[in-house]
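Cont'd.
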Amino acid sequence: MLRGLWKLTWIEIKIFLREPMGAIGTIVVPVLIFIVLGRVAKLKSGTPSFGFGSGSYAGAGLPVFVSILISISAVLSLVTIISIYREGGILKRLRATPLRPQTILTAHVIVKLILTAVTLLLMFLAGKRYFPPGAHVPWISFTIALLISTWSILSIGFLIASIVPTARFAQPIGAVILYPMIAFSGLFVPVGALPPVLQALARVLPLTYAVRLLEGIWNGDGWLAHMGDVAALTVLFIAFTALSAKVFRWE
Amino acid sequence: MQPVIEVSGVRKTYGKTVAVDEASFEVYEGEIFGLIGPNGAGKTTTMEAIEGLRKPDRGAIAVLGLDPYRQVYKLQERIGVQLQQAQLQKRIKVWEAVDLWASLYGKKAVDGTRLLEQLGLTDKRGTWFMNLSGGQKQRLFIALALINDPEVVFLDELTTGLDPQARHAIWDLVRGIRERGKTVFLTTHLMEEAERLCDRVAIMEHGRIIDIDTPESLVRRHCPERTVVLDTDDIGAAENFKSIPGVESVSSIDKRCTIRGHGDDLVTEVIHCLSENRIRVTDFRTILPNLEDVFLKLTGRSIRE
């Protein structure tokens, strides 16, 4: 069933890197945001703190915020690519081979996860000096947590890719849907402080669980403490993927 | 002979539009079969139903004994497909596409390097898809359609948008596919393409198959008219031509004389008449009807409209 997966994945990675603007936009922008905001935070407080002023996010605010940005830009990139491939008949051409549709999507998910990991690594490297001296960053666990989060958010990407009418609108529509989700993900305002309607919405969006998982892991929580978040991310992934499988158009 | 493709009573609607209406035909091993008709006649829908990409509302299709929709993956292994207006990833290189396609099939693929050589793409191996010309793209799509050494090859509007030179080169390639013993199913709205390539054609209009036969038989059956145009200074010649059996009308404008009639013998009779009456001509040509005329006759409109 997965015949052709690795070859397709490898080709898609190469194709991604051949488009400099796309590659720079997705990888460099989040890292730059991290550096700029990191500087601002440092100047303001005199000490390298990552909280957005209130200190209630226990230093995890900025890295988690930027990680979510990394994740969302990977998802936006998936939405754009899928809609371009559909509009150009590339998906249809790939389907007229023994290649299974799920193999095509899996290849793109793998590419986006690799991209996420690479960008996160760059963030760690670029932002080294903004971390508190001697701070213990659980970066392997944190990377895994971000990959799980991205994987889950990608399912919303499938759904958006299923409904955008044309490739031209894919990026803006995706951005309009995805970025506001950050606002009620609990990153800036605790979910409990939101109006009841938004609280209900926050509970069915993977971003909420992603933020809780990432904050926890950054602050040194063990995985056991966040099994609930991982489970929620998995359930939401399955739900959104199933939903998009129903409405997805290949041409 | 056992048909390779059997289509019977296939109907496909999109909302209220009937794309394909009770289409039935058979395609035999080793022939180039053309589905011809104007744009929007239902050719592509019919072809994609045969390829297993669309599910017909009604009717039965068998390709190589398989149900194309339910056994689509089994079928894909044995057929090669070129889709109308398909694209590849803009920045995929020619060799990468061939390499990827070769890895998708269960059986051993044909030698990609040789295939590219046969299609004249060797020096384009490392070129991005977006930088290929229209003809090169179509040649690459033919390569991809042949990579699994398929038994049946489907070509949808293969030469649309190509210049005449590229078109002739592609026609030679398609004849080459038949010479390798493969069956070719193609659609085209170019009557010249159908006449030059196809062993048999099915004429389609408004989702219906109007007639099926060899191009020659279709022309003979529907358009028996023959026209001879000649230039002569002999003023009395027109009277001689009128007495030829099968001639329906003779018209003269200055030196030019146009003789219309029907029947395969008309041209011979005119030549006979010329030599018998020692009529001196300075120009002589025949106008034979073609598929274009057949289409006009059958549908009452030109295929280009």
